[in-house]
Amino acid sequence: MKRMLCLAVLVAVVAGGVAFGETGPYRHVVIFQFKEGTSAEKVEEIERAFGELPKQIEAIRSFEWGRNVSPEGLNPQLTHCFTLTFDSQGAIDKGYLHHPAHEAFVALIKPHLEKAVVVDYVAQPPAK
Amino acid sequence: MKRMLCLAVLVAVVAGGVAFGETGPYRHVVIFQFKEGTSAEKVEEIERAFGELPKQIEAIRSFEWGRNVSPEGLNPQLTHCFTLTFDSQGAIDKGYLHHPAHEAFVALIKPHLEKAVVVDYVAQPPAK
Fold first, then answer.
1. Which B residues in the span 4-23 are in contact with A, Cβ-Cβ below 8 Å?
2. Which of A121, A122, A124, A128 to mutate: most B Cβ within 10 Å?
3. Res. B8 pLDDT band, cuts 50 70 90
4. What ipTM, to 2 d.p.?
5. Which of A21, A53, B40, B105 has a 20 to 30 A CA-CA distance from A95?
């Protein structure tokens, strides 16, 4: 019975998302617009390079990304979104932003970047 | 032993984030800049109203939000980020965007909004 309950909780977490407390995970949301004329190959290289960072940088707790598929089409020029999770603001500041692997990634992407939108937040839950 | 293993998996999922497959969850990322002069009370009213939507709109699978605390300070005018999860693009399109509760929220926020950045993505995992 306990095993079933535990499994049910696990399924709920995976399917429905984690309910975060007042001091929830620290999210780092990065959205890119590439310069006009950036080749598909270069974009794919950048996607791959960003996706390699979690293996190189210990402070990254989780990483997900995708191409913008919003049906609203409010910001079609913003084509990529990456969400990284850290333990805290201190963790991103000390363990990520100045990490050599992150700096190398920034150097790779910079010449091809028209715009980057970056916001961080400590995940709060919805209203109870 | 099985219970311990189950607990360990649960802890890993909560702490480290969910590892998403090729058809991962559908994320809807909404970032706001409020008009200059928008009162703190109005901003709090909007935060609360957005946070009420998961109770009113069945299609929302999970919801989290926070104020922008990025130490990089690249977009300080973008003060709020909300991440909603849906089952699919069809689910957000049919079950959320035109839902009366969402439309009422849009009507509430619109007069106070300087800018909204909205991107959706199907969550992909990092490189293996």
1. 6-7, 9-10, 13-18, 20
2. A121
3. very low
4. 0.83
5. A21
